[in-house]
Design a protein that fits this description.
By secondary structure, the protein is mainly alpha-helical. The protein has helices at 11-14, 41-45, 64-73, 77-87, 92-97, 114-141, 144-159, 174-193, 201-219, 232-248, 251-267, 275-278, 284-304, 319-331, 356-362, 368-374, 389-393. The chain is globular and about 55 Å long. It comes from Vreelandella songnenensis.
């Protein structure tokens, strides 16, 4: 595997994390980026991706069997601690008795109404935690009880036709946004356990048809041009489309997921910036990282189908340039040039969920700065985009002990759902 050519973080920056800003605004867009050069939805849908097809419907986003075997033999303190914690999974009865979300409802935007947004999204996040924790409990314990519980839990939602209605208006997209992460949380967790389920054919069929229907309906919403049609929300929709495409052996969904990688690489500037992300003013660094949080897991799913997607080049751009640019602007915000202000919001660096993609990347490539930075975030966990990712991906020799930072925040709140 080639090495990622990216600049590492300086010691000065690493010991200064995190730096918070007082003045932030979601509408603080840069006037120095030409968004006309980004790929439109229509152009993306016209890309010939016929060479991409599902090759293994039982391939999760990591090799579950191999990882479970490694975890049985490891003497890594971090992995052993995680195995002990995750092995005591949630109550199956409690999960199955929870009411699925079947009502239509609007969700207020995060930036204008953070308290109202948090209250409205709490049940959605509970679903994401539930599926991720059940899958993690199965991997940690090897107990089929948790795998079967996850199937029964998802089947309960499928039977209720949960999530099939959501409010979408260009001025009120939050319910549409929130559905994205629920879909890939469910699909990624289910992909882990499905090959180990003996029986429950009817339940599994219902779940897969439900997920496929939801993915097709949700991804058919075009989004706003030069915004949610093609930015990090495209990458989020692509993540569930790719995983559900694998589970349902739906090549159209799978190719939808692949198309987002082509779109991101097409849009990438010569220095590796994702223009629809770095045009977010004081959140430019946050959104460059946020986009990678979904692009890299998506590439991992595609990779597991046998494609050399991590080395794909489109318009002379590859994903390593996007990674390199992130670490360049983390190290020195002056490298943003005319894209965005130098005073950048960096509170996200205190939240382990924003580092999960790095764990996946490091399982393929060496990156000195990333390897140093992630030691302050482990164990990483995303309630939707992969669950306990350190447990699934970290090399046992990468780190022995958890490094706690006084500034570290244990919040699991996505602060990037507003476009």
């Amino acid at each position: 595997m080639p090495l990622a050519l990216a600049k590492g973080l300086s010691a000065r920056f690493l010991f200064a994390l995190p730096v918070a800003l007082m003045a932030m605004g979601s509408a603080d867009l840069s006037a120095n980026i030409n968004l006309d050069d980004t790929l439109s939805r229509e152009a993306r849908l016209s890309i010939d991706l016929s060479e991409y097809r599902v090759t293994d419907t039982n391939a999760s986003y990591f090799d579950v069997k191999a990882r479970m075997a490694l975890l049985e033999q490891t003497d890594s303190t971090i992995l052993l601690q995680l195995r002990d914690q995750l092995s005591i999974g949630p109550s199956c009865r409690q999960k199955i008795n929870a009411e699925p979300i079947t009502t239509r409802g609007a969700i207020p935007g995060f930036y204008p109404s953070p308290r109202e947004w948090e209250l409205a999204t709490r049940p959605l996040f509970a679903f994401e935690d539930s599926v991720s924790n059940l899958a993690g409990a199965f991997v940690a314990s090897g107990d089929i009880y948790y795998a079967e519980c996850l199937v029964h839990y998802l089947h309960h939602w499928a039977e209720a036709e949960a999530m099939t209605d959501f409010v979408y208006e260009p001025a009120q997209p939050q319910a549409w946004f929130a559905s994205e992460s629920m879909l890939f949380a469910a699909a990624m967790a289910y992909s882990i356990v499905r090959p180990y389920i003996d029986g429950l054919e009817e339940e599994r069929s219902d779940i897969e048809l439900w997920l496929q229907r939801l993915a097709r309906e949700h991804s058919a919403v075009p989004g706003i041009a030069q915004q949610s049609c093609c930015n990090n929300h495209l990458y989020r929709r692509a993540l569930y489309a790719t995983m559900i495409g694998v589970l349902a052996e739906d090549n159209d969904l799978f190719r939808f997921g692949v198309s987002a990688i082509y779109s991101a690489l097409h849009d990438m500037t010569e220095d590796g910036a994702l223009p629809l992300e770095v045009n977010r003013g004081r959140r430019a660094i946050h959104y460059q990282n946020y986009a990678l949080s979904y692009l890299i897991p998506n590439m991992q799913i595609i990779h597991r189908q046998g494609y050399d997607i991590f080395n794909l080049e489109v318009e002379d751009s590859n994903i390593h340039e996007g990674v390199g640019y992130l670490f360049q602007i983390l190290d020195d915000p002056e490298a943003l040039g005319d894209y965005a202000p130098r005073e950048q919001y960096t509170d996200f660096l205190s939240d382990p969920q924003y580092f999960t993609w790095m764990e996946i990347y490091l399982s393929h490539f060496e990156h000195e700065g990333m390897a140093s930075l992630i030691t302050r975030a482990r164990p990483t966990y995303s309630r939707s985009a992969g669950g306990p990712v350190t447990f699934y991906f970290m090399d046992p020799g990468a780190q022995e002990h958890i490094r706690m930072d006084e500034q570290r925040q244990e919040t699991e709140v996505f602060q990037g759902l507003d476009n």
